[in-house]
Amino acid sequence: MKRLEGRTAVVTGAGSGIGLAAVRRLAAEGAHVVCGDVDASSGKAAADEVGGLFVQVDVTDPEQVEALFRTAFETYGSVDVAFNNAGISPPDDDSILDTGLEAWKRVQEVNLTSVFLCCKAAIPYMRRQGKGSIINTASFVARMGAATSQISYTASKGGVLAMSRELGVQFAREGIRVNALCPGPVNTPLLRELFAKDPERAARRLVHIPVGRFAEPEEIAAAVAFLASDDSSFVNATDFLVDGGLTGAYVTPL
Ligand SMILES: NC(=O)c1ccc[n+]([C@@H]2O[C@H](COP(=O)([O-])OP(=O)(O)OC[C@H]3O[C@@H](n4cnc5c(N)ncnc54)[C@H](O)[C@@H]3O)[C@@H](O)[C@H]2O)c1
After folding, report:
1. Does the keyword Cytoplasm apply (predicted)?
2. Per-residue pLDDT averaged across 210-238, rounded?
3. Residue pair 184/216 in contact by the 8 Å Cβ criterion
4. For ligand 1, is residue 244 a contact (CB within 6 Å)?
């Protein structure tokens, strides 16, 4: 499908996992893709693969974030889609009993403040166009509690969800849709690294997913393409779950 022909999509965290799969899918749908990542080699490789543009960006830095969206506009003439997706899940973010203030703050900066900065930078372009779709990566943990806690991560994703909903309401009549994408556990480097160190943690989670497996990044990218396109023109201010039934489950099949 070519639902995004001639449109410009900015993706953060473009070099890996969900971001990389989204870069590929958005490009396949016809978009010009601007790949933002703090990691220059993976971010540039993603852009090169799809004939897009790489912009090195630390999403916690306001000036770098503004430059990312400005570069997209100056190169391609519009900012139609913002997939604000960069995020971290470091091991020192754990139970509230063991998590220090610095670890808490770092995760809030990368996962939540970054989304604030990206939306703040993207919305003025979209208002001028009278059109735009913003997709902010939250998580199913914005909706469910876990006893395998990563306290700052969970709180940051709850913040992404609430902020997305509010922005979706505020700018709806200006043609701008804002949705929080809430993936279930996805088979990406972020998750593999976490679970390789602690297989018991992986097993404790897998048992709760009705479909019996983690998502593949391409399955999340398909939802991103839908939310980016006019096919989702009446989908706004949602917690868009792509979780294999995880949040709907009480008891899973044997
Ligand atoms: N993997 C999962 O199971 C899962 C589930 C739900 C939500 N998520 C969310 O999806 C998003 C992507 O996760 P992923 O699994 O693809 O992760 P990943 O680690 O594979 O990729 C994250 C990318 O973000 C980049 N990045 C990190 N910090 C950055 C910064 N300060 N500035 C710019 N770029 C930065 C990294 O370089 C990397 O390329 C995250 O927000 C994550 O919280 C992941």
Report:
1. no
2. 97
3. no
4. no
